Model the fold of this input.
Amino acid sequence: LVRIYLPAVKCLKKENPVTRFISPDQLKGNGERILVVEDQKEMLDFVSLALRKNGYTVFGAANAQEALDIFDREKGNIGLVFSDVVLPGQTGIELVDKIISLKPDQKVVLTSGYMDEKSQWPAIQQKGYRFLQKPYPINLLLAAIKENI
Done:
């Protein structure tokens, strides 16, 4: 018998829980462009590979400045920014605030393994950004991306 305990987290902007079965094929992308910002190389590689194998075009960045450079190079042609909250230099919230100032309709999902002050949970809630708590399995990652792209 294996039991898995996950932390309780409020989901932002979630009115009704999903009660129907979603097949893995429904979570696949169709070339949508995702900017993944994660300072932990292993996590960046994991997320990038999972998204690529499921039909997304992925641009990976290890910090906010690299993400802004990619966003600029791609002329804002990014469907969704998926960023860790805790980054070196500036936070994921500061990064997405800058990106939204350039592209107001930019879709964003933030993620963090922290639930203390490092997660900046009050700021995330106040700004209405979507959030995915780490650690997460691939199916929840894909569902968060699909729901917000």
